[in-house]
Amino acid sequence: MRHGGRFARHRIAIGAASAAASALSAATAWGEETYGYAAPGQIGFQPPVTDLARYLQWFHNDILVPVTVVISLFVLALLIYVVWRFRESANPTPSRTTHNAVLEVAWTILPVIVLLFIAVPSFRLLTMQLTLPPPEVTVKVTASQWHWNYAYPKDEGDFSFDSFMKDQGDLKPESGDIRLLAVDNEAVVPINKVVRLQITATDVIHSFVVQSFGVRVDAVPGRLNETWFKADREGVYYGQCSKICGKDHAFMPIAFRVVSQEKYDAWLADAKKKFAAAPNAIRVAASAVEATRQ
Ligand SMILES: [Cu+2]
Questions:
Q1: How far, in Å, from the CA of 204 to the mean position of ligand 1?
Q2: How far is the CA of 147 from the centre of ligand 1 (A)?
Q3: Residues 203 and 159 in one domain
């Protein structure tokens, strides 16, 4: 019996150790840096590919997280101290103190200082996100239940196309397709160019989020929101709709491929031919509305 008990405890110890080891290996998976999508077991942000995303992640990782951790630990320590110090057996006759001017001033001023400390980088980030540099490429992004439409304006070819998630049966993992993220038509933009995004929706509120770009903007029907990014690394960067928009909310991924200027020019020439004639959901819907009006 005693032996059995010891072995059981031993097994529990091994279980705990292997759980810790798998948590560690998850941390290594995170360390391997997958660009544009999350690795299994990843904790934290995807690696940034714009200055905006770098600043955003610095603000979160180096300012907000330490502030949150220090305040939480401080409050926890205070609670533990109060529970221990003022328990009934140690403190049989409670004090009748109701005011302490120094304490009250301190717990008003200190949070104000913390908020001011956070406000400076926070407003800098907002200013960076909302001040558009002169755009070199414009893409109009329209969200619908449940896909995205990307339109390239007149000076870039004057075409638009729908982008749907690939079904599991159509995935080609050998060409880099990722389940739930790969799409039939990716938006393509050139590297190191200021890309202006104009974002709207046709039906309900969606939200356009690409983590590696540091971009998060709501897509609101009847309203054109603007933002921008300038990616400095080639690759495919995925995002997802981030406002609950209906039953397929989880299945309308965003895919942006960042390529060299030459590849972009080649893609534009191709896409112009491919999509100019092709009807897409929004044009079909628009002409249907026109037809009912006439
Ligand atoms: Cu959506």
A1: 8
A2: 7
A3: yes
